[in-house]
Specification:
Layout (H helix, E strand, L loop, with lengths): L1 H28 L19 H22 L3 H19 L2 E3 L3 H7 L3 E5 L10 E7 L2 E2 L10 H12 L5 E3 L8 E3 L2 H13 L4 H7 E10 L4 E8 L2 E12 H6 L1 E5 L5 E3 L2 H16 L2 E12 L16 E10 L6 H10 L3 E5 L4 H11 L13 E3 H6 L2 H7 L5 E3 L3 H13 L4 E5 L5 H6 L2 E5 L5 H6 L2 E3 L4 H43 L6 H20 L22 H29 L3 H23 L15 H20 L1 H4 L6 H12 L1 H8 L7
Parallel strand pairs: 2-14, 2-17, 10-13, 14-16, 15-16, 17-18, 18-19
Antiparallel strand pairs: 1-19, 3-4, 3-13, 5-6, 7-8, 8-9, 9-12, 10-11, 12-13
Length: 678
């Protein structure tokens, strides 16, 4: 959008410059251009060749000056300054920007697809419930569990894990390492069922391990016990409802294995649902024994997946992060939709979504607000496009489902931000308009694929990045409004003056000076504006909104018209009004023009609010830049006359210039009273 805008403005400037060049050449060669003595500057063959060349070079210089004025060459610098400053400030808010453009893109985001664990929640798992078969077991009842069941649980927890337990000394407190889920289960087993992980490893040989994967949602291990080498035991651990479907028996706390009929299966299913409704992650354990005969051990290296015996079920609580609900509400208020993508089952996902504010009573009326990954995957392309807006939560999802959702949302025209921490999330992070990886739990692959790294893995920081993104976009718009006001005013005054009198009041050096201080110092002043709460009350700009809004056009045209009117009055009546020479009149035009921009810089701080001074005391850099600009302008006018083609001004003339420029404030206030359809 910025490239198109710059190109469009440049073409207009070039067209006007060519027009001015033609008009001035026609005026000169038809004898309408007057020399300093009042006579015609061109008198046919009587005019010397050197004089003709000097005049033509002067005309070309005037046309080139218009091109210089028209093209907003300061725009890339302003954008870079804004992005770089914001990137530095965002580091303080726990966001490391890897790609500068992502700062601005985040401000246009319409949808955020977020993970649950560690982003919306604390990722501090703790086992709060344990069911053995169909019976709840609390800490005081663990001694009632039969020894054979305790042994099976110890094997299922201690051998089928990616976590480790380290005990420096026998009497010391065990140190547990691993993922939050593994640490929570190991901690529970050590404290509640008396797990001795070293004893389990000594008494069993591990034959085969099946690592956890996001499709099966389980991990398994095949072992041989040292006291009975003819029996191979399979232990599975994973998603409760998936393991339940693989079981045909269950153990009670007395250690008796019972056949599981349909009623009992439904009863255990209800237990899983009730735990999930309390936002607990449900992890189940199941086992199976196979007796092998001599010579056929090689046929039993694959883990059994049917006819398993249900051991038990633990519920892990992962509390929501403090402030996450307010952050979600803030994003919703800003018109940004939040979609949660998680590997948990539907009931747990729904409970967490309600707790975080992603789902509410209205969205719960839609049965399609919560879907499973496999269901979403099996939709046709047309169905996905129809239902994607309704979906708020995707449970039991895989990284491919996340990628599919991002692609579908982008096809619908959304600007999509995605959070991810795993290696498998890399395609979705790459595909998204803004990829947000996690700094703590995130893998290096995820970080390399992302645009911004959230250093504290907190969704609140994602909302802060959104706020900063909108601030960047808003600051770029402020500068565009400010820059175009300068360009339009200078272009019109030089064009009208050139066509009417054959001369330009603002020389090339003066206009280059204006461009220099307005593009660099002006950009820096507006780039340092801090984000305000008002930014989160607006709708997202999305992918197709114009860069220059109607509000900007209103402000820009009003200020440009005022400046053009004042400068034209000074151009044609300035000598008689102030009683000064031509050179002093041109200096007055130059000085008034620059001061108008300095005062208009205050107007540009807020494009809609009438109080342009609100919070200005917090931005000391803005005030310092204004002060530096005024000092440099005074030096330019008073001490660099030969270089800048200026003349010294009296105190009265300075006062008149400041007074005229200061009128931009009340004009800006009045203009903002005019309603604009947004």
């Amino acid at each position: 959008r910025l490239s198109k805008l710059t190109s469009y403005i440049g073409n207009i400037g070039l067209s006007v410059a060519v027009l001015v060049l033609l008009v001035l050449l026609i005026r000169y060669f038809t004898g309408h251009t007057k020399a300093e003595n009042g006579r015609s500057a061109f008198n046919g063959s009587r005019t010397k060749f050197d004089d003709v060349m000097n005049s033509v070079v002067g005309i070309i210089a005037a046309a080139v000056t218009i091109v210089v004025v028209a093209i907003p060459e300061g725009l890339p610098l302003a954008v870079t300054l804004t992005l770089a400053y914001s990137m530095k400030r965002m580091m303080r808010d726990h966001a490391m920007v890897r790609k500068l453009s992502a700062c601005e893109t985040m401000g246009s985001a319409t949808i955020i697809c977020t993970d649950k664990t560690g982003t919306l929640t604390l990722n501090e798992m703790k086992v709060t419930e344990f069911w053995l078969g169909k019976e709840p077991i609390d800490n005081s009842m663990s001694s009632e569990i039969a020894p054979n069941v305790l042994q099976l649980l110890s094997e299922g927890v201690g051998l089928n894990t990616t976590g480790t337990v380290y005990k420096p000394e026998p009497a010391s407190v065990p140190e547990i390492y691993g993922s939050p889920t593994e640490k929570a289960i190991l901690s529970w087993a050590l404290n509640d069922i008396g797990l001795n992980i070293d004893e389990s490893k000594r008494s069993c040989d591990i034959i085969h391990v099946e690592a956890f994967n996001s499709e099966k949602k389980r991990s398994g291990v095949l072992i041989r016990r040292s006291n009975n080498k003819r029996v191979l035991a399979t232990h599975w651990k994973g998603a409760a409802e998936m393991l339940l479907a693989m079981c045909s028996c269950y153990y009670d706390k007395k250690g008796v294995s019972k056949f599981m009929n349909e009623d009992e299966r439904a009863q255990i299913g209800m237990i899983i649902e009730s735990m999930a409704a309390k936002s607990l992650r449900c992890i189940a354990f199941a086992t199976s024994d196979v007796t092998v005969t001599d010579g056929n051990e090689e046929n039993h290296t694959k883990l059994e997946e049917t006819g398993l015996t249900w051991l038990g079920l633990v519920g892990l609580k992962d509390p929501c992060r403090p402030g996450v609900k307010q952050a979600v509400e803030s994003c919703k208020k800003a018109g940004v939709s939040i979609k949660m993508i998680t590997g948990d089952n539907m009931h747990t996902a729904r409970a967490i979504a309600f707790e975080c504010g992603i789902l509410n009573s209205e969205s719960s009326l839609h049965n399609e607000a919560v879907v499973e990954g496999v269901q979403f995957r099996n939709y046709s392309e047309e169905e996905r496009r129809q239902k994607i807006e309704t979906i708020r939560v995707m449970a039991r999802s895989s990284p491919f489902d996340k990628l599919l959702m991002v692609q579908c949302l982008k096809q619908k025209g959304h600007v999509v931000a995605v959070t991810g921490d795993g290696t498998n999330d890399a395609p979705a992070l790459k595909e998204a308009d803004i990829g947000l990886s996690m700094g703590i739990q995130g893998t290096e692959v995820a970080k390399e694929s992302s645009d911004i790294v959230i250093l504290d893995d907190n969704f609140t920081s994602v909302a802060t990045v959104l706020r900063w993104g909108r601030c960047v976009y808003n600051n770029i718009q402020k500068f565009i409004q400010f820059q175009l006001t300068v360009n339009v005013a200078a272009l019109v005054i030089n064009f009208i003056a050139a066509v009417s009198s054959g001369d330009v009041p603002l020389t090339a050096v003066q206009l280059l000076w204006v461009n220099l201080i307005m593009d660099t110092l002006g950009a820096l002043a507006l780039a340092t504006e801090q984000p305000t709460n008002d930014l989160m009350d607006k709708r997202p700009v999305g992918r197709t909104e114009p860069l220059i809004t109607k509000v900007m056009w209103r402000n820009l045209i009003a200020q440009a018209l005022y400046q053009v009117a004042i400068l034209l009055i000074l151009q044609f009546k300035g000598k008689s009004i102030f009683g000064v020479s031509e050179e002093v009149k041109d200096t007055l035009i130059f000085n008034t023009f620059v001061l108008c921009q300095i005062f208009n810089e205050f107007n540009a701080r807020n494009m809609e609010k009438k109080n342009i001074f609100k919070g200005i005391h917090k931005n000391r850099l803005f005030l310092a830049i204004i002060g530096i600009t005024l000092v440099l302008q005074a030096i330019m006018v008073e001490f660099l006359q030969r270089f800048a083609n200026t003349e010294r001004l009296s105190w009265e003339q300075w006062g008149a210039c400041i007074g005229i420029a200061a009128l931009t404030w009340p004009i800006g206030w009045i203009v903002k009273c005019i309603p604009v359809d947004k």
